[in-house]
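Take one record.
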Amino acid sequence: MAQSDDEDDYMNMTFEDAPKGPKYETSLQRAARKRKEGEARSRQKTKAEKEADAEAAREASLATALPETNKGFKMMAKFGFKQGDTLGKTEDARKEPIKVDIKGDRSGIGLESEKKRKFREQWEEADREAKRSKEKEGDYLEMRRLEAKEKKAERDLDSAQRTAERLAETEAEDKGTPQPVERPWKDVNILWRTRARRRAVIMHEKQQRRELNNSIASRLPTLAADDDDEEDDSKVAQGRDLAPFYTSLEDDLVDEDPELAEFEAQPVPERLQKLLTFLRDKFHYCLYCGYRYPDAELEGCPGVSEEEHD
């Protein structure tokens, strides 16, 4: 006999979960719960927690509108006040009371303003000090930059003097009129006369030391003679009398040179500019290119100064 479609399919039946009974806590769980509750009740709140609770209660109270049963609200209602109206005669008046600002310390009312003023003054002073430090640092860096620039100009001046002197000597030799080794200083070009005098002084000092050493080496046996009977060579050998070694060159070196003094009184950049112009006009030479051009056009040279060659 065939089964009908209405019959239940016991093979595919599902059973709902059996209802769970009430959950009972054990004696241990109950004891632990009561112990925690007791600890929470007996625990004393800290000052910060009390202040936080008071602040929260105050904010909640201020955020709550006055109920119609409030005596203050009833008094205001007698004057025509309704819930949501402004607290004044005009419509643009405030609707909420002035916010309460609780002062929690014992200092005077104006002390906070005084603290703010002092803090502002200290901050302004610190800001001024920082600016002064930056200015000093900037001045120091600027001073170092100027010193480096001046030293660079002095090196360029010495190089330009050396180059000009060398080119002048080469030109004189090419023309068959070499310049004499010893000549009056006024005949040396003022542009490199300082360098020539400095070189002559160094050579003269070396010559003096050389002659003194030679004299000492040749006169050692006479060092034991009496001072009254000593000859000039013996005094020279002992370094007490160098008059025999004074030369016309030394006399010329100590002479005043007003023209040279006036030239050296000029700033280094000005003297350097004169030398650079002289090299370009006289020899078609550019110090910063390091090249002697074939004509006065100096084609390819960017300019006179070093900045133009950067």
User: Anything to note?
Assistant: The two ends are 115 Å apart (CA to CA).
